[in-house]
Write a structure and sequence with these properties.
The chain has 351 residues and is of the alpha/beta class. The chain has two domains: 181 residues, Quinone Oxidoreductase, Chain A, domain 1, CATH 3.90.180; 135 residues, NAD(P)-binding Rossmann-like Domain (Rossmann fold, 3-Layer(aba) Sandwich), CATH 3.40.50. It has eleven helices and 20 strands. The strands form five sheets. Strands 3, 7, 8, 11, 12, 19 and 20 form a seven-stranded mixed beta sheet that branches. A six-stranded parallel beta sheet has the order 15-14-13-16-17-18, sandwiched between helices. Strands 2-1-6 form a three-stranded antiparallel beta sheet, with no helix packed on it. It is globular, with a radius of gyration of 20 Å. The two termini are 22 Å apart. The model has no long low-confidence stretch (mean pLDDT 96).
Length: 351
């Protein structure tokens, strides 16, 4: 494929994406070349599109967004041993150094030198082909769709959240925020044996969908009183594990309020403000364990296994599908129709 070109959807300036013809990357000795089949549109992509930055990660030059991805291997590097052409795969989007203290301790999601797809300055996968390191590429079961394989990435966040939160079978969980991450976290909790999963949101349409993702009880904060419903659902005890996925200061406060004495809180969502007021008296009085959740590590094999035999159809959260030529329309839809939009899927090589 020397000198061949591909189409790519490139963010050239704030809120402006254009289709460009770029060279197809040549895989290095330890890489495979993948034809991109399906890419989920993530909230971080939308943030870069709208604002050009997330915290210290700033878009300073044109960038290809997208990191929730699946595809087909079309070429392999000379030193690749465990993969072959023709395999259908899911891609873990973060290439870590393997040498820092965090990588060596197994928590490679904390690697300071990670090269993460669609995080400046690294390009993502709203393009026809991508070259990836062998160890970041995972063959998928024959019966798994490209869509589900792309959703392994956000699902991994949910798997990591319940792992960090030490969820045991038979426990109760409350999830603040029924966006895509809240939905897949609910699915992960259900698959892990949670007895009761309470979903909290402001949109009834999302709460309705959440019931298909494993949620057993819902609280609509536009209509319901959190304290009253929590008391009703848990007989005044509170939940074992509270997970925040909304990126909202009020949601963080809600998790601390909702968890039982001796319970755990896992914070996934990134609030727009760095500092969020919390009730320290409750944290101490209940002796709550509070954990931050950043991406994931060692989740892909487990996530693929869970999704391959799941009773929950994770594709339920896909509300819209677009071609790569329609990528800009997909972003605008996600921004302006939050009520009806959960996960948008984009197809760089056609459906």
């Amino acid at each position: 494929m020397a000198n061949a070109t591909m189409d790519a959807a490139v963010l050239t300036e704030l809120k402006h994406i254009e289709l460009q013809e770029l060279g197809i990357p040549a895989p290095k000795d330890n890489e495979v070349l993948i034809r991109v089949r399906a890419v989920g549109l993530c909230g971080s992509d939308i943030h870069y599109y709208e604002h050009g930055r997330i915290g210290g990660y700033v878009v300073e030059k044109p960038i290809i967004l997208g990191h929730e991805v699946s595809g087909d291997i079309v070429a392999v590097g000379e030193k690749v041993q465990n993969l072959k052409e023709g395999q259908r795969v899911a891609i873990e989007p973060g290439a870590t150094c393997g040498e820092c203290e965090h990588c060596k301790a197994g928590r490679y999601n904390l690697c300071p030198d990670v090269e993460f797809l669609a995080t400046p300055p690294y390009d993502g996968v709203f393009c026809e082909y991508v070259a990836m390191r062998e160890d970041l590429v995972f063959p998928i079961p024959d019966g798994m769709s490209y869509e589900t394989a792309a959703l392994v990435e956000p699902f991994s966040v949910g798997v990591h959240a319940i792992t960090r939160g030490r969820l045991d079978a038979g426990e109760s969980v409350i999830i603040m925020g029924m966006g895509p991450i809240g939905m897949v976290t609910a699915a992960a909790a259900k698959m892990a044996g949670a007895r009761q999963i309470i979903g909290v949101d402001l949109e009834q349409s999302r709460l309705n969908t959440a019931k298909e993702m494993g949620v057993t009880h819902t609280i609509n904060l536009r209509e319901d009183d959190l304290a009253q419903k929590l008391n009703e659902f848990t007989a005044g005890r509170g939940v074992d594990l509270a997970i925040e996925t909304a990126g909202s200061p009020k949601a963080v406060q809600g998790t601390i309020f909702s968890v039982r004495k001796g319970g755990r809180v896992a914070i996934v969502g990134m609030s727009p403000q760095d500092e969020v007021p919390m009730n320290v008296a409750q944290i101490i009085d209940k002796e709550i364990d509070i954990m931050g959740v950043f991406r994931y590590h060692h989740t892909y094999p487990k996530a693929l296994e869970m999704l391959s035999k799941a009773e929950i159809n994770i594709e339920t959260i896909i509300t819209d599908k677009y071609t790569m030529e329609q990528t800009a329309d997909a972003f605008e839809k996600a921004i302006h129709d939050k009520t009806n939009t959960l996960k948008i899927m984009i197809y760089p090589s056609g459906e």
